[in-house]
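User: what does the whole thing look like in 3D?
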Amino acid sequence: MAKKKTLKNNDIDEKKRLELYNSQYLIRVAEQRAYDLFLENLVKGTSHLSLGQEAIAAGFATAMQENDKSFCTYRGHAHTLARGASVVGVLGELMQRDCGLMRGKGGSMHLTDTSKGVMGSYAIIGAHLPMAVGSAWRAQYMGHDDVATVFFGDGTTNIGAFHEALNYAVVYKLPVIFVCENNNYMEYTPIESITAVKNPAADRASAYGLDSIIIDGNDADEVYRTAQVAYSKARSGDGPSLIECKTYRQSGHSRADPGAYRPDGELDHWKKNNDPITRYRSRLIEFGVKQKTIDGIEASVKKLVDEATEEAKNSPVPPEEILTTNVYANGGWAWRN
Amino acid sequence: MAKKKTLKNNDIDEKKRLELYNSQYLIRVAEQRAYDLFLENLVKGTSHLSLGQEAIAAGFATAMQENDKSFCTYRGHAHTLARGASVVGVLGELMQRDCGLMRGKGGSMHLTDTSKGVMGSYAIIGAHLPMAVGSAWRAQYMGHDDVATVFFGDGTTNIGAFHEALNYAVVYKLPVIFVCENNNYMEYTPIESITAVKNPAADRASAYGLDSIIIDGNDADEVYRTAQVAYSKARSGDGPSLIECKTYRQSGHSRADPGAYRPDGELDHWKKNNDPITRYRSRLIEFGVKQKTIDGIEASVKKLVDEATEEAKNSPVPPEEILTTNVYANGGWAWRN
Amino acid sequence: MAQLTYREAVAAGIAQEMERDETVAFIGEDVARAGGVFKATVGLFDKFGPKRVIDTPISEQAILGAAMGAAMTGMRPIAEIMFSDFLAVCWDFVANEMSKSRYMSDGQLKCPLVVRTGNGGGSRFGAQHSQSIENWAMAIPGIKVVAPSTPADVKGLLAASVRDEDPVIFFEHKSLYAIKGEVPEGEHVDTLGTAKVVRPGKDATIVALALMVPRAVQAADKLMTDHGIDVEVVDIRTLVPLDMKTISNSVIKTGRLFTVEENPRLCGWGAEIVSIVVDELFWDLDGPAVRITTPHIPLPAADNLEDITIPSVDRIYSKILEVLR
Amino acid sequence: MAQLTYREAVAAGIAQEMERDETVAFIGEDVARAGGVFKATVGLFDKFGPKRVIDTPISEQAILGAAMGAAMTGMRPIAEIMFSDFLAVCWDFVANEMSKSRYMSDGQLKCPLVVRTGNGGGSRFGAQHSQSIENWAMAIPGIKVVAPSTPADVKGLLAASVRDEDPVIFFEHKSLYAIKGEVPEGEHVDTLGTAKVVRPGKDATIVALALMVPRAVQAADKLMTDHGIDVEVVDIRTLVPLDMKTISNSVIKTGRLFTVEENPRLCGWGAEIVSIVVDELFWDLDGPAVRITTPHIPLPAADNLEDITIPSVDRIYSKILEVLR
Ligand SMILES: Cc1ncc(C[n+]2csc(CCOP(=O)(O)OP(=O)(O)O)c2C)c(N)n1
Ligand SMILES: Cc1ncc(C[n+]2csc(CCOP(=O)(O)OP(=O)(O)O)c2C)c(N)n1
Ligand SMILES: [Mg+2]
Ligand SMILES: [Mg+2]
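Assistant: Here's the predicted 3D structure for the full assembly of 1324 residues, as structure tokens:
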């Protein structure tokens, strides 16, 4: 059994594995921290955590090139961190401090770090799918080799923009990867109760002439491998992919959600038996990674997040002068002369 | 050969056949009249004809119950006439006269006759699909036995509202029939050049858990038969159908379109070899209908349209007082007191 | 009289109408089993069941289209669009369909439906979940536009909206959901198109809406206390139909007009009211009519920034003082 | 100087910019091989080929989203939305996305793109294909809004829009496509945010836009001829940025303000301008500021009805006469 797994997984080397673990673990700790800060009333507004869904962000980001572009939702902390954005910048933005990625002007739902290829997080369901298509059009048009990846939830497959984006991307064979994180719920409503097909993304792939791809979204290796195939397809000019990742959201939908809609035991089941971090930690050990190495990663991630938390806490709130900056390209907001 | 056809078609009796022919012929003559009136500068604004597509409107309307509801596009003269709306009302509306179905306030693109179940024609692509879904929801909710039918083109399958409507209808198993008239073109652009799949509606049926249905839209019998199956399915509570009818638009997209985008010979080919009226006339004769009977139908249709034309021509333009009526339910337009 | 919160008044208003009229049903995202993301529809699902209180997919166009098709054919649906910002994804149904079908059909089609939506800022949600877009709706002929400021008005105007034969966009203010107020016991139905003088005064008129109403009243009280300036506050309550009589009477009396708008400056409803007053009551004005608005910028997320964006009691107070002095 | 039609000026403007800048590309429905339903983009496909001039599916959200994603990452796309009424189906991209991404990202994201669209009435197309919705766009912070009235302005302002670093909504008036006018030879680039006094006068100011400009000028000429009333006409040209200097200078000079709007009355751009003038120049006004607008109704299809709906030369003339007498 162990043997078989070794064989099955020997395409990924230890260095990559540790990278994948580091990325997942960083997301886990940072998201938990965000939750704690919310309880301390230091995170204002809303926030949507990816606890339990870390493997998807980590797997894709690890397979990306530096010049690749990510488009995220309001549930985008994970994807932003996975591309290497500063933890201070992310936590600072959640705390709406001057050190935040957007100096508090965007907030938790709109994390953006273009220096890392994170082309924004969008809070209106579906809108960022066509934008990712546009980035892919630019890559094709200008002869660039980057690929656009757009992350979205199961619930998003029922909105019009999903359909338009998929068709458009296929018609022009654009280098864009559509990643559906199926965590079983839209906000509080089970996805199967409001969707015509069982697999909301994969069962619609054929409507765009695409392959139906369903993967275990809680297995970072499987995600990484699938991502690699999709990126190489896109970079070879063979067009888009639509990938449905099965996963589960361990946190509430947003900050104040008690999760009353979950059937008894469901959350526990996923936490105990299908947590991506726990699973990956076991796999590392199975593959001979030393406990010390793992401990080292975990310690350094914790330190990073602790230090970032302190730095963000000490950052001032944004100065009032920036209220009216960057509305227009000239830096200001004047709509009249 | 004739024998075989007889067998294949003996489910439809002569009375129905003549009804189907009458309906198609009426549409043909009225649409040609609309075109002539346009050349005389008596049809103002735009108008979108269904020449060549008559069998679809006729086949569905003939299979409908009186209380069924139709939702049409700007290309809706055919569907409105097929439900029995007055020819004077239709031509009068195209000529923007007081005798028009909506007294000139809607125009060619918005034909409505609720007394015949024609719940409006809509000119923004896709919008009427969700409306038809809503009508079907009301039927299910109130326990009515009517079914909603929504007609739209191939190009419409690429807009978001199509996707939302289909999913919604299936989730709640609503009695609505989605009829895609695939006439090969959106306005001037060939549908296959901007669509990810070959059959824009049928190849997407599975994305909503529906059967893929493609029929010859220029064969009124096949349309009628398919419609009957769909209505009885809907009335039995078994939910929506999506039907793709292959056809061809013999006229321009709208009034002034010279059709330069058509490959040489294409239009001629369809007119000569696959015109629904010519085909149906031959079939009637094949099935033993007397030429005299056919001539009688044609003569009475022509008379009807001639008389309607005269009546519409003699109708005054709408009085200025109605400019501000029926904006709100109180009959007026006052937005203030 | 019962003490209800603004959010409880929403549920109470819907329940009252659903009990009265079988053709009223309610659809929206997460509105049924979960009682809505703002908990404004808690209890309705238990009371009326899955046939009448329905969780939908994330398909705003289908939601409004379904409501429209049902309304055309005999129902009186209430549809929720969770945040008013999301009306942008189904704007066609508001701007081109429900608003125009009666006119285009010369009265054959009707659309008695209500679109409820959470509007306004103050929750630190950022630019895509905080907007006040009542001016977008006011700009569309053929619909009615309501935005209550108290629990009683929520219930009474919601009932009136459900009973109205025209499509109504009903803006609930997110930052008011928690406020409490007296609501009449038993059936309560108000009248669309009626503004209210909520604070009488003689020196100037403030016209305000929704969250801006309590702020305007506070500012007016402070102007009285500090400077003896006696400001009348009019709560518009419904933008369409617009109760110009009440507004005009107030302006004729006071000679000065201020509007307090949460929507961003350009083409806000305050501009409309000012332009009517300047046309019709120019000679009654004793000085400039002045608009106090959210500046013409997207909304920032940070609390300190959001607080200086939306008109505050202080800003209203200072601006009026500056102008009247 | 060359004589071009308004529609030829569109193609000329696009061609000029595509020749200059490789990153400019053009997408829309039926715009390439067929040259657009208004024939405003004829010749571009032949000149620049299928890579740069692209026929799209009927997917307005994808069109604007694609333009946005490309603009964010280095292109300067031009997207056509065939009729401005259809902006309602992709309004989210205008109102919530392209307009806010720069602000939400505190300047990290940019959206240098142009959305061209056929706006306005007069074609007997009915309520869903005839609207003037420049006021919808003006109400959204973060975008620029342009609406030219002459072929020269079409070319010059379109070029300026393409070169602008912000998203621009460019309203072409359908009833002006056929008019002819002088357009400067060679490269022609105008400046956004500059209004023009197109007819000097001293007795009153008319502020007008697009199709309303030639009508206002005709009305002014007739007022002069018939009654010796000398009216100044200002063509706003761009609603955002708004050239208030030119408008204010005119009002200070004449003491009277009229706005002539094709958008329906409520929350139109005229209201905004009136409200600014009344706030800032109240004491310069010699009488009421008056708006002449399309009434607040959906547009009828019939020609005789449409003609009495949209402000005509006669209506402008009579209203001004009535007010000034
Ligand atoms: C157009 C629009 N409709 C509704 C919402 C409110 N909303 C925010 S998140 C969400 C659920 C999204 O579900 P899914 O796509 O599965 O993503 P998840 O939150 O599970 O990651 C909804 C309905 C929104 N933001 N935008
Ligand atoms: C949202 C929207 N986009 C574009 C248009 C312009 N338009 C009118 S008809 C048409 C083509 C429609 O093609 P199809 O659905 O195949 O119907 P057909 O006209 O062939 O019957 C287009 C693009 C529109 N009316 N609405
Ligand atoms: Mg989900
Ligand atoms: Mg077609």
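In plain terms: The longest strand of chain C covers residues 257-264. DSSP finds twelve helices and 14 strands in chain C.
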